[in-house]
Amino acid sequence: MTFCGETIFPGERKKLPLPVPGSLPLEAVCLCGASPGRTLAVTAGVHGCEYVGIQALRTLEKLLDPAALAGNVVLVPLINPSGFYAGARQVVPEDGVNLNRVFPGNPEGSLTFRLAFALEQALYPIADLLADLHGGDCNEALCPLVFFPVTGAQAVNRASLEAAKSLTVPYRIRSTAQNGLYSWAVQKGVPALLLERGGQGVWSEQEVAACCEDIYSLLRHLEILPGGNPPREQVEIVQAVYEEAAASGFWYPAVGVDRSVRMGAVLGYLEDMQGRVVQQVRAEFDGVVLYHTTALGVRAKDPLIAYGRP
């Protein structure tokens, strides 16, 4: 296989630079299988405080054996290094921009836009499937889930959905996003998923192992590894609501993640400094809570809670 102009030979593992215009390169790990097949690209660390996926790719980098692969794997464990080391929530610290909102990128833009451009140029041409690993940020509690696209070409949507069904997460969510790393890949004809595990600024060996198993599931789904996958039990979310703060204030969630709620139920409320309720969030339909903000203080337009209709 060839990655960023470098050749990786069958049975070989290489760490290679992923060039970023006007900045230090990112590090990619490329594994070329002993026999030909499809290519899985997996990314993590778009948001620097979402640790489970980052650690999962560091683990898989050591565990995956190129000699056992029929195809190729490209891992990019840390896309936003400065955000990771600074503990920056959701953004690239150099310009304060959320990388998962700026695709397609711009080689002449600020660092976040240049990162987006670099990732598109390096990963989209080589990937038969792209999986972008996320989680709840340091201020979010989250139930494991996968987003799959419904706004791409029919064949791309279908391939993404079939890949999503192979994962061990309990929920899969229809997504109409188009400006993120995985969702722009879909617009460019690459099947892709966004997988979420963990949150609240912590990680555990158990969560990392579960994330690794999901990547193994994708490798078996693509027949890069043999064996196939057993049937998975998943609930598909056909409609989701993402509530945001109407103003800066104090946020009090009333329900936990993975909890069923009835239409009209209070999901949480926002108070101002004087203790007045300035926003009450109620469920618009019967559904299940997917994630919510755990921080007491929130800014206007910050995410508060997400719930979905099965």
Keyword list:
310 residues; alpha+beta; Aminopeptidase; OB fold (Dihydrolipoamide Acetyltransferase, E2P); nine-stranded mixed beta sheet; five-stranded antiparallel beta sheet; 35% strand; globular
Structure at a glance:
The protein is an alpha+beta fold and 310 residues long. It contains six helices and 20 strands.
Count of individual beta strands: 20
CATH class of the largest domain: Alpha Beta
Provide the CATH topology of the largest domain: Aminopeptidase
**CATH architectural category of the largest domain:** 3-Layer(aba) Sandwich
Give unreliable regions as ranges.
none
- Kindly provide the radius of gyration, computed on alpha-carbon positions and rounded to a whole number of angstroms: 19 Å
Helix run count:
6
The helix/strand order is EEEEEHEHHEEEHEHEHEEEEEEEEE
Spell out the CATH superfamily of the largest domain.
Zn peptidases
What is the 3D form?
A: globular
**Strand portion:** 25-35%
**Order of adjacent strands in the largest pleated sheet:** 3-4-6-5-7-11-9-10-12
Number of domains: 2
Keywords: Hydrolase, Metal-binding, Zinc
GO molecular function, one term: hydrolase activity, acting on ester bonds
Protein name: Succinylglutamate desuccinylase/aspartoacylase family protein
Pfam family, one: AstE_AspA_cat
